[in-house]
Write a structure and sequence with these properties.
The chain is of the alpha+beta class. The chain is built from 15 helices and ten strands. The chain is 36% helix and 11% strand.
């Protein structure tokens, strides 16, 4: 017990540009994860600082609907004050980490400031005048020390971006060109249950609607507090999620994803030892085994499995492939496939190409290259480095309505 306390103290006290180097066992830029995750879920983010209204969700305070009665955390708020984390802007730049599609629960609550939930801790992060990161702990059941440890684990501080960027830049001229403009784009280490539910919501969806769905799901959890007009909740437990019906989710606008969420919750609750523990155990498997296990859950295809693996299961070479990533791959890695259509078989080719180029942390390289393609981030880089030129908006075509979405 004394040893773990000492390690926790050292973790907090000695964070610098490249963190935890002295604790490295297997790779100079990665610490070994040995602490099991908490059974109560962790955190996530969003992309817009504006309140998003979902399709007439059921009121949380409605006495006619006890399943949605508001849960409130016990009074254990901390007097808000900003605490420097000794993390530089080059190791974590908030606008390139939170609103870029990794997670959908964090809200922008000020200039260069984002607020979200890590486990039961309500936290704000911001850049100080020198660019370094500071944290403000608004609410924590377990005190600031435990909240800080949970936050640092969530921020994946055991991996030094400086080392990775140097390694990737040495093997890829395009990465070397982009890296100076996109420093601090960090991959988070989210709670697996929270990450899984978010990415089931993301299937064939847009950021605004994903955020609406995730906000609805989050509202089933324990209320932790309000920051700058945004209400924040601890992510609901599996037992809490099991109370929500498919019909309620459909009414809230989830469409066909409603059945995937309720059936996945049921499948996880049926796992021996518990669904949260089962998800956490996937961190100890190799990537293909983790993919195979995740793919047994309703609504989890190759892309959702890759996102969950990369953003919550320590599978650093998992490659989520969408149209952006396909375009990057066929332009720079496998140009012989340019002009062909992405198929499940070619999905594997893309993953192999990234791993061959960038190695065991290929997912981190893919994340930066993906961010460089986002319209919201293109202003940060010279147009000469864009993969494709900006196109003038064309007349919107009428989209056929998917009956599953009704």
């Amino acid at each position: 017990m004394q040893q773990s306390t000492w390690l926790g103290f050292m973790l907090i006290s000695n964070l610098g540009g490249c963190l935890l180097q002295s604790l490295t066992r297997f790779h100079p830029i990665m610490k070994k994860r040995s602490t099991p995750i908490s059974s109560s879920p962790s955190t996530p983010p969003t992309s817009s600082p504006q309140t998003l209204k979902i399709k007439q969700p059921i009121s949380q305070n409605s006495s006619k609907n006890p399943k949605r009665a508001l849960l409130t955390a016990p009074p254990s708020s901390i007097s808000p004050k900003w605490v420097p984390l000794n993390i530089s802007k080059s190791e974590l730049f908030l606008p390139l980490t939170f609103p870029t599609g990794q997670t959908f629960r964090w809200k922008q609550t000020g200039p260069l400031e984002f607020t979200g939930v890590v486990g039961s801790h309500l936290v704000s992060l911001k850049h100080l005048d020198n660019g370094d990161i500071a944290a403000c702990f608004h609410h924590s059941k377990d005190g600031v020390f435990d909240a800080k440890l949970a936050l640092l684990d969530f921020l994946n501080v055991g991996i030094c971006l400086g080392d990775l960027w140097e390694e990737f830049s040495g093997s890829d001229s395009r990465f070397a060109q982009l890296a100076p403009y996109l420093g601090g784009a960090r991959v988070l280490r989210q709670d697996p249950l929270e990450c899984l539910v978010q990415f089931i919501c993301s299937s064939n969806n847009n950021i605004k609607r994903i955020t609406q769905m995730v906000d609805f799901i989050s509202g089933l959890g324990v209320y932790l507090g309000t920051v700058e007009g945004f209400r924040f909740y601890e992510f609901p437990t599996l037992d809490r999620l099991s109370i929500v019906s498919e019909e309620e989710l459909r009414v809230a606008g989830f469409g066909y994803r409603a059945k995937y969420i309720t059936r996945t919750v049921d499948a996880l609750r049926a796992k021996p030892g518990g669904g949260v523990e089962w998800l956490a155990s996937l961190r100890d498997l190799d990537l293909q085994m983790a993919f195979d296990a995740l793919s047994t859950l309703p609504g989890v295809g190759p892309k959702v499995a890759a996102c969950v693996a990369l953003f919550s299961l320590d599978q650093h070479h998992a490659i989520p492939v969408d149209t952006h990533v396909w375009q990057i791959a066929t332009t720079y890695l496998i140009p012989e496939l340019a002009g062909t259509r992405l198929t499940p078989k070619l999905y594997g080719r893309v993953s192999e190409a990234f791993v061959c180029k960038y190695g065991k942390y290929a997912g981190w390289a893919q994340t930066l290259l993906f961010i460089a393609e986002l319209p919201s981030q293109k202003a940060l880089i010279p147009s000469i480095l864009w993969t494709t030129a900006e196109k003038k908006p064309s007349k919107p075509r009428k989209k056929k309505r998917n009956m599953e979405d009704i």
